[in-house]
Task: structure prediction
Amino acid sequence: MHYSPVPMHIPDGFLSLVVSVICWITSASIIGLAISKTNKALGERQIPLMGIMAAFIFAAQMINFPVAGGTSGHLLGGALAAIVLGPWAGMLVMTAVIAVQGLLFQDGGLLVMGANILNMGLLTAAVGYGLYRSASIRSNKIKLGVAGIAAWLSVMTGALLTSLELWLSGTSQLQVVIPAMLGVHALIGLGEAMITVSALAFILRTRPDLLGEESESAKGGGGWIWVGGLIALAVVLFSPLASTDPDGLNRVAADLGFLGNAQSGAGPLAGYTLPFLAFTSLGKIGAGIIGIIVVGAVILLVGRGMKAKA
Amino acid sequence: MPISHATPSFVAPECEGDVLQVRDLHFSYPDGHAALHGVSLKLCNGDKVALVGPNGAGKSTLMLHLNGILGGHGEVEIGGQRITRDNLPSIRAMVGLVFQNPDDQLFSPTVFEDVAFGPLHMGLPEADVRARVTSALEAVRMSAYKDRLSHHLSVGEKKRIAIATVLSMNPSILVLDEPSAGLDPRARRTLINLLRELPITMLVSTHDMALVKELFPRTIVMDEGRVVADGLTMEILEDAELLTAHGLEKP
Amino acid sequence: MHFDAFDRYHEKESFVHRLDPRVKVVVTIVFIISNALLPDGAWLAFVLAWLFLLMANLLSRLGVAYTFKRSLVALPFALIAITVLFSIPGKPVGSFSIAMWNFVITDAGLLRFVSILIRSWLSVQIALLLVAVTRFPDLIHAFEHLRVPAILTTIVAFLYRYLFVLTDEVFRLLRARESRSAGTAGKRPGGGVLWRARVAGNMAGQLFLRSYERSDRIYNAMLSRGYTGHLYTLNPHEMKSRDYYVTAFAIAIIFIVQMIGRL
Ligand SMILES: Nc1ncnc2c1ncn2[C@@H]1O[C@H](COP(=O)(O)OP(=O)(O)OP(=O)(O)O)[C@@H](O)[C@H]1O
Ligand SMILES: [Mg+2]
Result:
């Protein structure tokens, strides 16, 4: 028995090294921030709480409901985690979930894990939480409605970012991957929204204190509303643009130096050499440096080996 | 329906060096539910005492007070010390509290890590921690399980490891919440033998009256947040009226 | 129900099993990075990388084809890359039409597509091997050593421990739903999609509350054993000279494969 993988878990091999590394750096910085924020804000009670909540999200992703024609609705959980635990703790929880899925189940790769964490964990939490918090009205109905929209948009932003990464890696064409990913995820997002809303409604009925004024859920500052709102707005404006005018984006990517072969429709980072070192001489120097690092590492390891006791 | 209780007809055995003393303990949960109404009891070194009573009597709640996880009104003394904020670490090392559900007690991926958790967080050096893990596992006859994964264990094994997780802290009193619940006859038998052999003061809450009869010379009966009887198990088990009044059955 | 399906570790007495988990993590990552760096169509290097994998399989005593047999998990994702077949300019090597569209596969497109698949397929195999020869708790220790923040490794350790407990709960809930929504013969069980989504959401909510309350009890259990907010762990592993040599050797081989791929 295994959960059905969500099409957003990118396996290794589908993103170029540069895109993977950029995503890792971005994710690691955000995670670092989340760690320092949670260390400051949360009591020691939060460690087991986040641990169990990670297991909860993992398990809850297995809850499905039949939709039609053999497809089924699922939960991804980024928005839900951020809404009930607060954004920073939600991000850490999602990071752990995606890490275990990649490591233990090969559901998502390792080198591309930074991208997967960014797309499915950090971004969904930020968008989901920010939009949810924008409903400052007391009425639970409105809150739940907004949570549903937030959950849907969180999935859509994740899908959009995934598409962009695939395009930048030269794995997919913009004009194909964006409509395809967004189309599929518009449906996946509906499932996400429905489960998120009914789960929140259940929690509001049975333990309203967990979502009340005093809860972790209400502690994120107004900045989140901006973050979530802006990202969501960007998605809404960007997606139609990207799929109707892919050439424009290709040009932008070329100007940013992402481009090896702009003319080819395959996308800018077709991963031949280190793209930032595209000029031959620079490329050679870069390769030389890597070579020196590797040889140095090997010598160092052998030296350590001789020192360590067998 | 409220039952009017006669004053307890049994007198607890007297002793000097009290391991544990609870005086007039009251406690209400945050939701306002009053779970303890003036509980008093004493345990002496080497005592093995059963704590019985119907569901909701307050047994688990009382146990959570014994190492300061909950703090009600009244006094709790462990080894002559009142529990305060400052001595919590040493109190928790003295009182080995094992929860009912071993899945809550065993929260680490491997058996070793779980048994090592207590001594490690007492600040012991690594060599001592390892020694304690070894002897605690030996005490519960589970030495071979050191490197096993917790989620692979059977319920009976989990229960024994759960006891090892507090034995490794060298407690002066063992407090077990329903240790025999959910065990098959053989696992239950193993547990009984283990509890009999462990040379340590213990307070054990249970619904298993056969276990009480077999293992514990002394029994405390709780109901509705009060101690309603405290005395020799032999005598309590003969008091049919007391037993039926508190929903207990003679084994 | 017990979820042994979640256990990816294969107990064997082998040299690879006994290696320090850090070695295995580092070699795995270096191997995957190297795959990502191999140019399209570096066939010889691909084959050598695959031989490296076969060797690792053999040395682990899992059978040569252990990872090969399980390596198709990432295949569905290949759909995403299918457009490169048609979109890269080059000599046409084949074409087909669906409805009114005519697709022309180019040689350059085919080269790129196959290269992407091979890279992915090699990488997923070494990841499969890593968890087959290393117990997950040991992997967590390895990451602790490799300076992954303790808060993350702790969350992952809890996740791993309670994965089994909570998925058990999910399957109990799912079974309860099934037995209640059996329905009468010939009639589709359950209401509309919205209703079914609500039932699923309620299950998630219920699972959340149970988990939340469980985390309280676990916290109490931790407090009882001296936890005060700071976590300590013991490291069961120590790098031996063999571990260093193996790392050096593996990295050297991967480096050579990389050089050959770039010739
Ligand atoms: N977290 C809580 N919040 C509010 N009330 C609680 C809580 N835990 C327990 N109670 C209530 O306190 C009373 C005593 O509960 P306790 O668990 O101590 O009983 P018990 O004797 O251990 O019962 P059992 O034999 O079922 O384990 C019960 O009425 C219970 O409903
Ligand atoms: Mg109880």
